[in-house]
Amino acid sequence: MKNYLPLCLVAFTLMACSSSQNKSKTTANAETYAKTITAAELKDMLYTYASDDFEGRKTGEPGQKKAIEFIKQGYVANGIPSPIAEGDYFQEIPASFFKGDTKASENVLAYIKGSEKPDEIIIVSAHLDHIGISKNGDINNGADDDGSGTVAVMEIAEAFKQAADKGFGPKRSILFLHVTGEEIGLYGSRYYADEDPVFPLANTVANLNIDMIGRVDPKHENNENYLYLIGADKLSKELHEISESINKQYTKIDFDYTYNDENDPNRFYYRSDHYNFAKNNIPVIFYFNGTHADYHKPSDTPDKIRYDLLETRARLVFYTAWELANRDERLKLD
Questions:
Q1: Residue 160 CB coordination number (10 Å)
Q2: In whole angstroms, how far apart are CA 164 and each of 33, 155, 171, 252?
Q3: Domain boundaries, the chain
Q4: What is the CA radius of gyration of the chain?
Q5: Which PROSITE patterns does the record cross-reference, listed alphabetically (predicted)?
Q6: Around Cβ 169, how many Cβ atoms within 10 Å?
């Protein structure tokens, strides 16, 4: 006589097996498309973006206009649309929004629409500006600050687009946000968050912000496989746990939380664009390699970038965004 399992147990077993298979498939897909983020492509883009032609990308100046056009054309070439309007990737910020004599400027926005929860948004951001030309005529190329973050966001977007084209688009929408005016006071991210959030902040699940991830600071010269993480546990313990789990599974970077300390005298938590989302109760992670001898100097050039590290760090952000975009439940806010 054959032994038959109860129907409820059969159903449970099938569901568990299906869930395990789906998780395995999701992992395999994430690894497949993370591999499209390469040191070679990052280097190719950054040598253009941090070249003298862009004149240090000072907010509102001609070099910054070249920068936004470069970013736009990258998205156009990869078939990644704008959420503003067809062909319109620029969020215009009037000169009146800035203090002093800063001219009108632009954020650059591109996105991939979610397949199941399109109204829920993950933002991956970096600032596109730098400090321009010194009084003596030297160009501050800003290869690390924040050319490294800019090209990382573009490569992450391309990876998500390739996945979507193969039928593995994210469940939630992902906004790739390049903000202006960071160096003069976080203006671009503040304009998006306070004046014109293209997607409602209430629907924004998290912000992963990249500002300087291409170099090694003096503290880590003997341990280059590191990255500072700031803010992950400030608003959502779950985000911190997901971040740790993703890194353990895929990239195995040594996370340094020195600057996440509430008493950090540098106050980096308040000094990059993620803060304008955090102040609106949106969980954030700020990815940062720390400062170095070339910080805000003309010597911050693309030949000094560690492209192997930039690749790994960009893949980390991709994996984290992939998890946040595809998990069943929305990230919990403490």
A1: 27
A2: 10, 14, 10, 26
A3: 23-326
A4: 20
A5: EF_HAND_1, PROKAR_LIPOPROTEIN
A6: 20
Asked whether the bond before 261 is cis by omega within 30 degrees of 0, the reply is no
| pLDDT tens digits along 96-131 | 999 999 999 999 999 999 999 999 999 999 999 999
Task: Tell me what pLDDT residue 145 has.
Answer: 98
Bridge partners, 256 (sequence order)? 228
- 45 and 156 Cβ atoms separated by less than 8 Å: no
Topology of the domain comprising 23-326: Aminopeptidase (3.40.630)
Cα dist. 269→88, 194, 225, 232, 254 in Å? 32, 18, 22, 10, 19
The DSSP H or E segment spanning 68 is helix 62-77
Q: Give how far Cα 103 sits from Cα of 96, 108, 236, Å.
A: 8, 16, 37
Token pair 């997901």 in the structure block, residue: 242
**Statement: the pTM of the whole predicted model exceeds 0.90:** yes
Q: What is the DSSP letter of 259?
A: G
Could you tell me which residues come within 8 angstroms of residue 277 by beta carbon, excluding any fewer than 6 positions away? 123, 189, 193, 201, 204, 207, 209, 284
Confidence (pLDDT) at 20: 47
Q: What is the percentage of the chain residues whose pLDDT exceeds 90? A: 92
What does the longest C-alpha to C-alpha distance in the chain come to?
93
Question: How many C-alpha atoms does 157 have within 13 Å on its Cβ side?
Answer: 31
Summarised one tens digit per residue, pLDDT across range 31-44 is: 999 999 999 999 99
